[in-house]
UniProtKB/TrEMBL annotation:
This is Lysosomal alpha-mannosidase. One of its GO terms (molecular function) is metal ion binding. Residues 367-446 form the Glycoside hydrolase family 38 central domain. Its cofactor is Zn(2+). Pfam families: Alpha-mann_mid, Glyco_hydro38C2, Glyco_hydro_38C, Glyco_hydro_38N. The gene is man2b1. It is an enzyme of class 3 (hydrolase). GO terms for biological process: mannose metabolic process.
Amino acid sequence: VNIIQSSKYIFAKKFVNPQTNRTIDRSLTCHTNRLCLFCIDHVTNSCHATVPNMLNVHLVPHTHDDVGWLKTVDQYFYGGRNDIQHAGVQYILDSVVGQLLQNPERRFIYVETAFFYRWWKNQPPSMQKAVRQLVDQGRLEFVNGGWCMSDEATTHYSAVIDQMTLGLRFLNDTFGPCGRPRVAWHIDPFGHAREHASMFAQMGYDGFFFGRLDYQDRTNRIRTLEQELLWRASESLEPPYADLFTGILPNGYNPPKGFCWDQSCDDAPIMDDPDLEDYNVDDVAMAYKTKHIIMTMGSDFQYENANLWYKNLDKLIRYVNTRQANGSQINVLYSTPSCYLQELHRANLTWTLKTDDFFPYADDAHNFWTGYFTSRPALKRYERVSNGRLQTCNQLEVLGGPSSRKGPFGAGDSETLREAMAVAQHHDAVSGTEKQHVANDYARRLANGWQHCQVVVSNSLAALSGSSAGRIYCDNLNVSACPLTEASKKVTDIHAHSCTHARPHRWHFVRATFDPATGLLDSLTNLETQQTIRLTQNFYWYNASDGKSSISDQASGAYIFRPNSSSPFIISCTAETESIQTPELQEVRQQFGPWVSQVIRLHSNSKALEMEWTVGPVPIADGLGKEVITRLDSSIASSGVFYTDSNGREVLRRKKDFRPTWDLRQTEPVAGNYYPINSRAYIKDDKDQLTVVTDRSQGGSSIHDGSLEIMLHRRLLHDDWRGVGEPLNEMSGVFPLGLVVRGRLLLSLTPPALAADAHRPLAQENVLQPLLSFTEGGPPPGSLLEFSGLQAALPPAVHLLTLSQWGQDSLLIRLEHQFQTKESKEHSVPFTVNLQKLFSTLKVVGVSELNLSANQWIDEMKRLDWRPKMGM
């Protein structure tokens, strides 16, 4: 495989069976007695005809079904806890399918495969046959198609790819090409990431529609007629490889005012009897007089009684189109996003080009949705850890062979954790914007999935090592708890002494100095490059607005970050310190007060300075909600510019109080400058670059020149009135006084030209940390103590993103070039990998390349071409 592009994924389905040497047929699923070729021109054949020279209004019936939010996934599917919210997804699908079968003119789109998969399993063969016919005929269209509609700010690209693959694989296996979504559909996430658009393009989508963008951005785009655009979503990939047509929906994802006919709405139905006092057909028809637009006809958990919707939509279409005989130029039709996109493509226009992203998102002057970048930091970390565990489980399941799933430690599987991780990517899951009992449910699912994967890992290690000795996993290392190692007599003792005088702490390439008067970090030196910066670090908290100020009644909450002052409060000007040194590491332990502490470490084998922080319980006895940050202040002349990553992949340039595509009127000098940090952020000048690598998704900014601040924890006393209905105030039986969170930051100081060579592998290692397991006593005689699944190390620029079982005789493998274009002289170049010599225990007998989501052969992936405006 020749990896010819920087930051490009290479995806291959490996047909491997060392026992039989059987090469697997590369055909995609096509069910018996199905006309699968019909779907090659599926969109063209299934769309209702439009009328030339008329205004064609596309009505798109849909439901938006959160995979957890106010209720758990199970409660939403079954319709439980309707005292919280009336919603039952199984009844929505029952009702919609029944209405579609009654009238072939009707259309419906569905998004969340996690729910559809559950519903499908419970249907009799006769209903499954009927639904397949609806899909074949384009009357039921899947859009997006992932297991969930993922969040775009707080998700890591590897987990997004996995959840999309899971959902799209089910649709492909169940419906064949007819079930393959052509449109990405993110109508509810709270801002939109460039890397998501890049991934969607590489998954073969023709276009992307979303509902939320900054209120100033929308106003500007309405004025300039740029609510539809071409998003160039990668600096590294040659256009149009990562170009994606993008449309902004006119009503978010709701129907126009007065046209909501769900049982949860109170809009008047169409009363078409002229003898009735409330006859309103003429008023309804006039509402579309000046618009040619896609109309989303539905909303959250709607269509449980689909007859209400379809009866009124049938009338709307009939009566509006009847007016054409009297000269009306309006044509209304049932449609889908794919059909609407097809009409835009046929127009053969040119489109404004966008190269940045849609962060941050604000719905009003003081309402920036930048708090959720950090909300529920413990859940965010647990999701990230679970992602690493899933990749380990997937790889060992392959390397250990069939006995991994059923071996000396019983039967295990990777599917349970895979599904739990897929659900966790939902935009009200890892985002931290759900109710507390729902957050608990997400964590429970991840824990349960890990228990299933532990069996796979133990079985695989037994098969590879030749030892069936029991394995012990320390699942509470986040609180430094591991009973086995704590009780072991083989733990090396270390000597501790107080730090009573100023001294430098150095290790090979790195040196950090501390101020003896304050106990705070004072400078950082890269001994290899002979560069030093002044660097101080401390902890602060913003006083969260309670929603009672005279400027606005907006409070900080799970979604929104709104400090009532631009100046944070310092927690302590000094830190009590203690220093520890061993042959393997040096560390300084700092205590900033009863609820904030930190350990700064230098490891013998690392070029990064580690900062392990512990925050909590955040005190609230004073009645003040608090948003806790750490701030690094340096001598770097950053000139108001800083950089953050997009979903852990490419890096985007940020500038304080600035947006690339419109003239920003800044109304929140702190919250309005916060961006999501998924894995890293940095500041630089001509000489120095300070990079911070995070261990979870967090919010951050550079409010002052030379500084980087990262929000670590939030404890709030008021709801922000965005639907969740409770304050973000996490407590539990373990933490009855409030949540305590621990995490770490990794700091590297380099010349800018060499920075990516350090932070790219550092961030990848932080995401995919080694899984530790222990056995009591020494290894049994004859045990294999070392094993590698690779014959040799991959080039530093190449990362094995995916290695997982794909059916009985084949594997799914993804290789990625993890460097962005032009960021490294040494590594931002093509690399070649010999697949025949890649694995130590697997024999490759055939290879076929697929798209990113593994639901299309790459040579058969055809996307619509879109033209940017000249000069763009």
